[in-house]
Design a protein that fits this description.
2 domains, nine-stranded mixed beta sheet, 20% helix, L,D-transpeptidase catalytic domain-like, four-stranded antiparallel beta sheet
Length: 422
């Protein structure tokens, strides 16, 4: 009887489907993010062997003739090692070559199954990784730098930068803090081709690979959900220590003469002191900072006959226009070159604006920092408080007089401001 009962239990247990197990959400999912409900099914994991590697090499060489052979070599090794480590991935492959300057197209997306190039465009790097050239990388929190190595794409979601893509860093000590650092792929108005052609390079993110607005949505929807992303740079440490480049010692490696040692500390980028409104301003005590003195990028280039400096450009546009934070010498020039017959025109002191950052709810409940003009009145005159210093630089304090309103002081500081500088 007992044997019969055991047999019955064994049959019934294996006949019923197992119930799904629900796992609680982790705190890593932030409150300002909503996951996309429509998830596109992905293909079965790609199995890479020597024959398929040769086919992929021909594909990359043919479809992307300007892709560096050294990059192709490391990508092929990555694909082989990903198979060796049973990394789940589909047929989409994305490559970023950070050895190229940021004003060149250095982002490729390939469909390995269809054997074709899908996208080739621009991509930004972190603000601490360099200006035009990318020469510093970090896996550390709050580094504001890009991270090299192999990633697996995760879910797409809507956040403060619109449609974005979570990235899971698979390369230990090179990018495995990417998720915790909130390094994601998103769009950026400062990566558009027109912006790059005008200012000489794209703006910079805080470590995220930002894409042009016009193509980011199509790219993210193509590469989401377990595709491989390889962010390349000829780092000697990455070449020697990445498990995705060293799983097969029989693969011929390029000599270390092609590699570069990445510095341990980010190069110090000199920041110009910009002008903040000081005493005399009676704004909100809860504001992030006092108002900053700016002019539009169009006016800046017309008045000063030079390209507007991205290091002092606001990280948010105002009414689809870029604005530049002024330094003391520029303010002094504007105050002494105002045409008295130019009232109401963008000329001299009439071009000066004051802005503050404000948090606003956008896209159904997400908070976004936006820039807002502060109306302190029509400027009547600007007086420099002090004289030229010994090094022939201006004093860093001004008084601005308004028609019908109280005057305010402007003070120059070079402190880091999170919403100034691209």
């Amino acid at each position: 009887m007992s044997a019969l009962l055991l047999l019955f239990l064994a049959v019934t247990v294996t006949s019923f489907p197992q119930l799904p197990v629900a796992f609680p959400h982790t705190q890593a999912i932030k409150s300002d993010i909503r996951f996309i409900s429509e998830i596109t099914p992905f293909s079965e994991p790609e199995q890479i062997n020597d024959q398929s590697l040769n086919v992929i090499k021909m594909l990359l060489t043919h479809e992307a003739p300007h892709l560096n052979p050294l990059v192709i070599d490391k990508v092929l090794t990555t694909l082989k090692c990903a198979t060796a480590y049973n990394v789940d991935h589909n047929n989409i492959l994305t490559i970023i070559d950070y050895s190229l300057p940021s004003n060149e197209k250095r982002f490729w997306v390939f469909d390995l199954k269809a054997k074709k190039l899908l996208f080739h465009t621009y991509v930004s790097h972190g603000i601490k990784s360099g200006a035009l050239l990318t020469n510093f990388f970090s896996n550390k929190y709050n580094s504001k730098a890009s991270s090299i190595g192999v990633y697996q794409t995760q879910q797409a979601y809507y956040g403060r930068d619109g449609l974005s893509l979570r990235l899971d860093g698979l390369d230990r000590n090179f990018n495995d803090n990417a998720s915790g650092r909130s390094v994601v792929m998103h769009s950026g108005w400062y990566v558009e081709e027109n912006f790059i052609k005008r200012y000489g390079r794209p703006g910079r993110s805080w470590g995220c690979p930002a894409l042009p607005l016009e193509s980011s949505q199509a790219i993210i929807n193509t590469i989401k959900d377990k595709s491989l992303l390889v962010i390349y740079y000829p780092s000697d440490a990455w070449f020697a220590k990445s498990k995705f480049l060293n799983c097969d010692k029989t693969i011929p490696q390029y000599t270390n003469s092609a590699a570069i040692q990445i510095p341990d500390i980010a190069p110090d980028e000199q920041r110009d002191a910009i002008l903040f409104v000081g005493s005399g301003y009676k704004g909100s005590k809860h504001a992030e900072t006092k108002p900053v003195t700016v002019i539009s990028a169009d006016t800046y280039e017309r008045v000063f006959h030079t390209t507007a400096p991205l290091t002092r450009m606001l990280r948010r546009q105002i009414n689809n226009a870029e604005y530049i934070a002024l330094n003391a010498r520029e303010l002094f020039y504007l105050s002494n070159n105002t045409n008295p017959d130019s009232a109401g025109q963008e000329d001299g002191i009439n071009a000066i604006r004051f802005v503050i950052p404000v948090l606003k709810v956008v896209r159904g409940g997400y908070y976004e920092t936006q820039m807002q003009f502060v109306n302190l009145g029509k400027i009547k005159a600007i007086k420099i408080n002090g004289t030229l210093a010994r090094d022939n630089s201006l004093a860093n304090n001004f008084t601005v007089y308004f028609e019908g309103n109280s005057s305010v002081n402007l003070n120059a500081h070079n402190e880091f401001i999170r919403w100034v500088g691209l």
